[in-house]
Amino acid sequence: MSIIRTSLGQFISTTRVSLLESLKAPKPLHIVIGNESVDIDSFACAVLYAYYTPTPTAPFLSMPRADLALRPELHYLLNLLQISPKDLLFTDDPPLSALPKSTRIALVDHNRLEPALRVFFQDSNVRGIIDHHEDEGGSPNAKPRIIERSGSCASLVTNYFKEVFPTSGVVRGGLARLGLAAALIDTTNLTNKVTEHDTSTVEFLEGVIKGMPVEPGSEKWDRQKFFDDVWDAKNDIGYMPLRDLLRKDWKEWTEDNGKKLGIAAIVRDLDWLGSRQGQDSFLQGVKSWAQERELDLVSVMTTVGQGDEFKRELMVWALDDSVKSTIAAFGEKAQRADLQLQTWRDGGLDSEDGDRKAWRQFNLVASRKQVSPLLRESLREVVVEVKGGRESKV
Ligand SMILES: [Mn+2]
After folding, report:
1. For residue 234, how far is its CA from the centre of ligand 1 (angstroms)?
2. What is the SS3 string spanning the chain?
3. What fold does the segment set 242-393 form as a domain?
4. pTM for this structure?
5. Average pLDDT for consecutive 10-residue bins of the chain (394 residues)?
6. Which CATH code is given to the segment(s) 8-233?
7. Cα 284 to middle of ligand 1, angstroms
């Protein structure tokens, strides 16, 4: 069975079959994987990278299959691009343990192997990186190793492979829409966090779509409408229980001192979250989730609105007394990094003993990408009790 590239649906389906077949006979495999938030950008990057790269490469989503249910925006795109969900590859389907130890991995939309993969693979498995997060310095010999600032990582992937973009066929429309979905969502339709990579990608991919014949019965390309439809799908989360909202766009880290941190990004504000079943129940839900993940520190970052209405909030909660100092340390770092934090609702979510604080964040450009390094740094500075009762600064 060979990989068919006439449409994205065919490509994904034949890639899965061919991967499963090759698992029967041990031979080198190539996979590409996005980050564990599995947002539109990570999804698009993995599929686009796999499609464009000449070596047969299977795109993986960095989550178990069941979590696809938490991502209405991916369902919308899969339907639009006629990709069958059953053909996708997840961290439990096939199980990562079934992949050969020699598997060559490309990381997109992150640049360091995540814990789920670290169980089976090492930095030396990582052979390619295209990302727009802070460079964590791993896999220095990866080729490509592109880590640059851009609104969407899919813009970097598209630009890197521009020369091999197919010159004919309907697949051009699918590739273009997938790249555009990521570039437009991550820049709020080219109004936020836009870089040269994003504008050139949008221009290039829109050129592709406009150059294709409009199929009878379908509409002419309308960027605003396309963006609005994806945006609405992404925001269709009102029905989800809090635990799902927290784990839907979730990232976590374990620092060298063993302290563990997780940050949820949610596209509703703190008022909305607190209004559903009351603020106490919201806080209890965050705490239960953090305990389930065995965290020392948990954070919720919210975004709502577009354009002038766009708003950011941030809540940070030290769950263990040993990391309480993180809150103040983070406050100082946030000030130096100009996050422009202002106490949320006169301290309406702050705890009396200082282990939880919430802010409105007036620096609208700083997303989890910028905030997480500050929180991680604060956590690394915590004074850890070592055996024998001595204390050491780690
Ligand atoms: Mn991204």
Report:
1. 15
2. CCCCCCCHHHHHHHHHHHHHHHCCCCCCCEEEECCCCCCHHHHHHHHHHHHHCCCCCEEEECCCHHHHHHCHHHHHHHHHCCCCHHHCEECEECEHHHCCCCCEEEEECCCCCCHHHHCCCCHHHEEEEEECCCCCCCCCCCCCEEECCCCCHHHHHHHHCHHHCCCCCCHHHHHHHHHHHHHHHHCCCCCCCCCHHHHHHHHHHHHHHHCCCCCCCCCCCCHHHHHHHHHHHHCCCCCCCHHHHHHHCEEEEECCCCCEEEEEEECCCHHHHHHHHCHHHHHHHHHHHHHHCCCCEEEEEEEECCHHHCEEEEEEEECCHHHCHHHHHHHHHHHHCCCCEEEHHHHCCCCCCCCEEEEEECCCCCCHHHHHHHHHHHHHCCEEECCCCCEEEC
3. Diaminopimelate Epimerase; Chain A, domain 1 (3.10.310)
4. 0.86
5. 90 97 88 96 98 97 96 97 98 95 97 94 97 95 97 98 96 97 96 95 97 83 97 94 95 94 97 95 98 98 92 97 95 97 97 96 95 97 62 46
6. 3.90.1640.10
7. 30
